[in-house]
């Protein structure tokens, strides 16, 4: 029995789409995806039903990995909720300054996928809800007076830092977001 050293067509399509949609956006052409993956058009339709299905699977795959990174980042910061939340913004500084950073894949997808019923929107929406839930849980542990609103505010700061990191080179949006996050985190009941 031969052991396959290279990924099959499905995995090659996912890898190609993950890379190309990040570097070139969700509007990347089918021909470019097929050429990069070195697969026939038939493979795209057999495995994903078309480009929309492939894009949706890429978003699912990346949201799982990115959500796990949030958890890992917070867990590495210890058990104190405030430190766990601020660690997200510290890690964000590394993300937006990494070579090849092109912004938030999910913001880009939501801006590019013009059909409001595209299944990719459901994936990005669910991802944001899960991340918001992680943030809200820490704010609740901290005794924050409005944890749901605070989590929304923190997520907005994350989205803003990612957008600014891609569009405003030479700035430090993560540091600015971290400072504002501390204000949100430290809010007292009024």
Automatic annotation (TrEMBL):
<dbReference type="InterPro" id="IPR036271">
    <property type="entry name" value="Tet_transcr_reg_TetR-rel_C_sf"/>
</dbReference>
<protein>
    <submittedName>
        <fullName>AcrR family transcriptional regulator</fullName>
    </submittedName>
</protein>
<dbReference type="InterPro" id="IPR009057">
    <property type="entry name" value="Homeodomain-like_sf"/>
</dbReference>
<dbReference type="GO" id="GO:0003677">
    <property type="term" value="F:DNA binding"/>
</dbReference>
<keyword id="KW-0238">DNA-binding</keyword>
<dbReference type="Pfam" id="PF00440">
    <property type="entry name" value="TetR_N"/>
</dbReference>
<feature type="domain" description="HTH tetR-type">
    <location>
        <begin position="7"/>
        <end position="66"/>
    </location>
</feature>
<keyword id="KW-0805">Transcription regulation</keyword>
<dbReference type="InterPro" id="IPR001647">
    <property type="entry name" value="HTH_TetR"/>
</dbReference>
<feature type="DNA-binding region" description="H-T-H motif">
    <location>
        <begin position="29"/>
        <end position="48"/>
    </location>
</feature>
<keyword id="KW-0804">Transcription</keyword>
């Amino acid at each position: 029995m031969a052991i396959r050293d290279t990924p099959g067509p499905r995995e090659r399509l996912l890898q190609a789409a993950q890379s190309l949609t990040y570097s070139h956006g969700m509007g990347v052409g089918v021909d470019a995806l097929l050429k990069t993956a070195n697969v026939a058009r038939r493979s795209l339709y057999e495995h994903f039903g078309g480009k929309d299905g492939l894009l949706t699977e890429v978003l699912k795959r990346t949201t799982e990995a990115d959500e796990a990174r949030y958890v890992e980042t917070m867990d590495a910061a210890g058990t104190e909720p405030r430190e766990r939340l601020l660690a997200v913004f510290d890690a964000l500084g590394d993300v937006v300054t990494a070579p090849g950073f092109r912004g938030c894949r999910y913001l880009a997808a939501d801006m590019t996928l013009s059909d409001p019923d595209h299944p990719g929107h459901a994936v990005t929406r669910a991802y944001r809800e899960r991340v918001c839930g992680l943030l809200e849980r820490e704010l609740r542990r901290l005794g924050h007076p409005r944890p749901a609103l605070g989590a929304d505010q923190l997520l907005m700061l994350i989205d803003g830092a990612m957008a600014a990191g891609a569009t405003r080179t030479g700035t430090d949006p993560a540091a600015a977001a971290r400072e504002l996050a501390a204000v949100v985190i430290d809010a007292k009941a009024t």
